[in-house]
Structure formats: C-alpha cells, structure tokens
Amino acid sequence: MYLPSLLGAFLLLIVSAIAESSDILYWPLGTAKPSLLARVTYDPISLKSELVSYHAPSESNSDELIRIGLYKSTASNSKQWAGSLVSLSALTGENAPAIRLHLAPSNEIYHVSLAASKAPSGTPQVELVSTEPGAQPHLNRPIVVGPDGQNPEQEPEKTFFQKYWWVLLILTVLTMSGGGGGEGQ
User: What keywords are annotated for this sequence in UniProt (predicted)?
Assistant: First the structure.
C-alpha cells in the first residue's frame, strides 16, 4: 500500500539529484557586489530548464551597463566571475529577455548571456545552449607530392576548341556532304 508513494518519493529524489541549480547574478558597474537576478534549475541531459525565482532589477538608469553572470569554480580559483556586459534596458524593457545558459561538454554552465525574447514582459525564459563538436580534420590522409618533393602541378584547363573539336569536325563533314544545288529538277 505504501509502495507507490515510496517509489514516487524515490523517483523525486533521483530527479532532484540529477537536476542542477545555479544563481544568475546581475552586477551594476558602480556597485561593489552583485545581486541575485534569477535562480534556475536545469537538467543537462534532457536540456530542460526551469526558472525557480526571478528578481527584476530596479530601473534607476536604463542606459546603465550591468554585468550578467555567475560565479564558478576553476582549478586555480574557487570563485571566478563568468558573464557578459549588457545594458540595464535589456532586462527592464517591454519584452522579458531570454537568459541563455551556455553549457560546457562537462554539462556545467560556463557562460551566461541575454537574448531578445518575444515573450510578454514579466518573467524571462531560460534557454540551455549546449556545445556541439566542431568540424573535425581528416587525419591520416596521404599528401601527394611530386618526385622532387614539391606539390604536383595542376594541368591548365582546356580551351573551348580543345574540348569540342570533334563537334566542329562533324558539322564540317555534314556541311560538305550536304546535297548540291537543285539543277536537275
């Protein structure tokens, strides 16, 4: 009787362990420390995200520049800022922005940016952007060189007459062998 509720609680515990959360901060250039903009949870496997809370910044001067980002830990620094610089009007305009969270191959956020959104004003959308592998070089392909070690010379392209001399020959033969005048009629 308690088995379905225990199973549901266990699944909820697993899902919450897989989903990661992160605080997105905004930092006006004139202030000493950042403030909380949004708290998001995301699942890097399914690329689903959810906005847990959003605190819109006060609109003191819409031309003011602010930093949008987060703190992340690296091997050399336990608290390193990663983000981008935007105008405050991007957050307080008529349309709510889309907060883009850029994921590294290790499925952790390495960068935060804003994008224009067509959603009505209010709460912004959260988008996860995963990195895709770039073009791979074709390795172990032999390099063709001439006997002297230089690149082989390209043959020059043939002219029109060199390509289609046989068509001109056929036209000439047909013209020469064509019927003569009509003297015998």
Answer: Signal
Look at the chain and report how many structural domains it folds into: 1
In single-letter form, the type of residue at position 119 comes to: A
Asked if residue 183 belongs to a domain, the reply is no
In a domain, 181, yes or no: no
84: closest CA among 65, 98, 108? Answer: 65
58 in a domain, yes or no?
yes
The residue range of the domain holding 88 is 19-130
Torsion angle defined by CA atoms of residues 162, 164, 167 and 171, in that order, rounded to the nearest 10 degrees: -60
Provide block-wise average pLDDT over 10 residues at a time, the chain (185 residues): 51 51 84 86 82 78 80 80 83 77 83 78 79 82 81 85 93 85 58
* pTM, entire model: 0.57
Q: Which two tokens stand for residue 85?
A: 């610089």
**Rounded distance between C-alpha atoms, residue 50 and residue 20, angstroms:** 10
Tell me the residue length of the chain.
Answer: 185
